[in-house]
Structure formats: structure tokens, C-alpha cells
Amino acid sequence: MTSDLSKPASTAADRPENLRRVAVLGGGITGLTAAWRLHRAGWLPVVFEQSARVGGVIGEAGGSGWLHELGPNSILEGSAEVAAVVEEAGLTGRRLYASETAKRRYIVRGGRPVAMPASPFGFLRSDLFSWRAKFGLLAEPFRRRGRGDVDETVADFVLRRLGKEFLDYAVDPFVAGVYAGDPGGLSVGHGFPKLYRLEQEYGSLILGAIRRRNPSGGPAGRLFSFPNGLQELPVALANGLGEAVRTGHAVQGVRRIEDGWQVDFEAAGGRRSENFSAVVCALPADALAELEFGNVPAGARLSILRDIVHPPVASVFTGYRRSDVLHPLDGFGLLVPRVEQGRILGTLFSSTLFPGRAPDGFVGLTSFVGGMRQPELAASDDPELTASVTAELRRYLGARGTPVFTHVQRWPRAIPQYAPGYQRFKDAIAAAENSAPGLFIGGNCRDGISLANCIESGARLADAVTRSSANAASRRR
Question: How would you classify residue 63: left for phi > 0, otherwise alpha for psi between -120 and 50, otherwise beta?
């Protein structure tokens, strides 16, 4: 594995060392992306990570040919920032693209998985939607545009434009798969801004999708991972940054000082402090809410972020002999709508999606439990949780017998829910930055929840530090 992360550019190299140090709080993918961008621009980042490893929710477990992605399972290639990070981490040649078979998606209807239509002709032939719903879709371009000043829920938006059947059997399972959320509790403008903009710009989802279609007719980006899982990316970035990454360092607070910022942290040697020219916060919302801000205006305090809802989610990996699963597993996975009253949100066909997730002759399935729909199920003990999942896999996929391999990963506070009124949280973050020059805040509570969003957030943070420094230097002149 090669990497050129250790070759910083000279943009900031002429500054005194004490003015080029930037504290990066959080060693997840957002913080690591921000750190290496700063490093390459000539800054001296120091990454503070409380846990013993980097990557945040990105991680893997398994062995003997099994691989359970504990958090995200893939990255969408369609972003220039994602491509740059992968290339500069030396991982371009290690990308594993999702199998062509994995393009198919299944939705459970009537207790059985039904393939989502992939073309207009397939839509007409599909059993997933009734003829009434299909004909009703023809009226979508003629429906009135929603008010731009109303923070509408996803459910209300879809009911208004597409009708209840599309809400129940397309959007509800999709929202559960992306956010582990409830379309009645998510803001369409904040949670799905591209969908919101289609209506605002074109007056119709169908016409907007046609107008914005990729000229090649293909997808805007491909899904990929790496042979040893997505953890290869944060590990490669951390290795490139070397001693600039400090695991086992818990930041207790930050304080404005005359020439920048003081960071107070706890490590093996006790509580210590160091000074920096700027602070980049790439922490989860809960950690940001608890962070102590000293000697800064009240507007820089972020305790309001405690109010962001994060439902619990359990990721349950089960491995079966291929002969014990009747379904062909010829797709990305299946999603279970709320109206089907299942006990899982959905299941990824992990060993179909990427090679190396199960030994030869076996299959690996990753099922998700809990979320906003049934948070109490995520708290079940491991035997009960595994029994619930295997019963559902028997029901939907014809998985027989007992799995030969299982692994459970729990996320007590998983994905931030971008609920109606979410703008107040973004406004609080912006106010904190405006009240405290040299403070920069990003991550999934501000910039989007996908892995690509988080990488883009890290790049944005690094660029903001550089622009702020350049503006300050210009004012001094």
C-alpha cells in the first residue's frame, strides 16, 4: 500500500510553526479527511481521538473468511472529494466495486421479497405497485408545487406528490434503510435536499429527474469498498498522518486564548493542555453538546445539540451455508416496509455485494434492527436478537437451520434524525463559529449522514481553515 499523504504542499509552510498547528477533534472519517487536507496544505494538524482506534463507526469484525462491516457497508464514488481521498490514500487499486448483480433491490410486500422495478417497462410489469398507483403516477407532473417556506415531513411530501402506496412501499422502506428513520419524522428539505430541490426547481419529481438525468444513461456513481472492508480508508489516512494522530486522547474542553486556542485533554499521562491556531470539531452531536467552551461568547456553546434524536440500531451479521438459503440473493438486499410489520428494517446480501464477506460455499447477510420504528428491539440481548433476525430471514429468504456464524454490533445512538425544525441546530453551529473565530465545525450532524457527505465535510473544514487564515493575513496587510 502506497500513500503520498506525507508530502505536504507549501501553502502554509512559511508560517511560524506555532501558528500552523490545528487541533482536529475526532478521528472518524470527517476528522481524518480534514487533517490530511490540512497536512497537504502545509498545516500541522493534531487529531485527538478518544477511543483506541480511528474510523468512528467504520469498522469490521469476523475472521476465518467472514467479514462483518460494523457500520457503513459501501461508499458512493460519485463525489470528486471521495475520489481524491481514495487516490491520495493509495487505495485506488484496492477498490472493490459492487457486483453487477447487486443492482437489484427487493422490497417485502405480502410477506415476500419483490424486486424494485429498474425501468419504465419494468415498473408497468411490477407486482410491487397496484395499477391504481401506477396510473396515479401520471398525474404527478401536474400537482401543485409545495410552499418553499414550509418545513414539510417526507411523509407529507410523498403523500402530496405520489400517494400512500408509494409512501408505504417505496419511500418508507428507503427512509428506514438510509436513516433507520420514520418518514413522518424527517424533514424532506434537510433529510433529502435533492428530492426537495427537484420539486422547487422543476415543479415535478418526474420532470426534474428526467431533466437531471446523466447524459450517459448510467448511474451518477458506483458503490465500492475494499478487500478488508471500509476500515482500510481511515487506517490508510491515519498511517499517512503518523504521529499527528493521537488515539486514547479525550478532549475535555477548548478555550480561546490571545493567539488562538487552548485544548485541554485527558491521556495516559493525565490531564494536559496544548495551544493551537485553530480548532476543527468533527465530533458526533452528543460529544459537541458536552464539550466545554471556555472564554468564548455564550453563542459558541452547543448544548442544544443534545436534542438531536439518534435512534438505537443493531447490526446483526449471519452466515449460512449457501445450500441453506432458498432465495437466489441476486441483489443488494431487501427492505421491509412498516406496513409489513416485520422485526427487521432490512437485510444486505453482503456476500453478493462484495467478495470476501463469506467463505466459499457460504453466504453472509447483514440485518438491521431497531431504529425509529422499533427502538426497543435493538436493546434485546444477543440470543433474542439473533433469534428474531433468523426467524425473519427464514420468512423472507427461506434461510433454513441455524447460522454457522453470527456477530452483533450495537449502536445505542446511531444516525442523527434530520427532523422538521432541524435548521435550529444548524443555526446554532453557525452561531458558534461566528462567535469564536478559529473554530470550525462539521460532521454528520451538519453536513449529511452518508460516508461521502462526511468526507466532503472534512474537505470543507480544511478549506475553511485555509480561507480564514488567508483572509486574516489580508486584513493584517
Answer: left
- In 3D, which of 9, 7, 35 has the Cα closest to residue 21? 35
CATH number of the domain that 255 lies in?
Answer: 3.50.50.60
Report the distance separating Cα 124 and Cα 100, nearest Å.
Answer: 23
Q: Where are the beta strands (DSSP E) in 361-467?
A: 362-370, 405-411, 439-441
Mapped onto helix, strand or coil, the DSSP state of residue 109 is strand
Would the pLDDT of 106 be above 60?
A: yes
Judgement on whether residues 406 and 323 belong to the same structural domain of the protein: yes
My answer on whether 313 and 405 are in the same domain is yes
The percentage of the chain sitting over the pLDDT mark of 70, rounded to a whole number, equals 93
Instruction: Please report, for the chain, how many H helices and E strands are present, in that order.
Output: 16, 21
Beta-strand relationship, 313-321 and 362-370:
antiparallel
Strands 250-257 and 260-267: antiparallel
Amino acid symbol at 121? F
Position 6 scores a pLDDT of 43
Beta strands in 90-222 (DSSP E): 96-97, 105-109, 112-115
Indicate the pTM of the whole model: 0.92
Cβ–Cβ < 8 Å for 277, 269: no
CA distance 240 to 178: 31
Side chain identity, residue 238? A
Q: Answer whether residue 5 shows pLDDT above 50.
A: no
The reply to whether 303 and 313 lie within a common domain is: no
Q: Which pLDDT score is estimated for 391?
A: 98
Measured CA to CA, the distance from residue 76 to residue 155 in angstroms comes to: 26
**Cell digits for 92?**
485506488
Q: 10 Å Cβ neighbour count for 14?
A: 8
Question: The domain containing residue 243 runs over which residues?
Answer: 17-57+228-308+418-476
Return the sign of the alpha-carbon dihedral for residues 26, 356, 325, 321: negative
- How buried is 60 (Cβ within 10 angstroms: 0-12 exposed, 13-18 middle, 19+ buried)? buried
Residue 118 forms part of a structural domain: no
> Cα 242 from chain centroid?
25
CA atoms within 13 A on the CB side of 443: 27
Rounded Cα–Cα distance for residues 239 and 279 (Å): 22
CB atoms < 10 A from the CB of 379, how many? 14
Tell me the one-letter amino acid at 281: C
Please write down the long-range contacts of 261-270, taking CB distance under 8 Å and 24 or more positions apart.
261/23, 261/438, 261/439, 262/294, 263/23, 263/25, 263/48, 264/292, 265/48
Give burial (CB, 10 Å; 0-12/13-18/19+) of 180.
buried
71 within 8 A of 58, measured Cβ to Cβ? yes
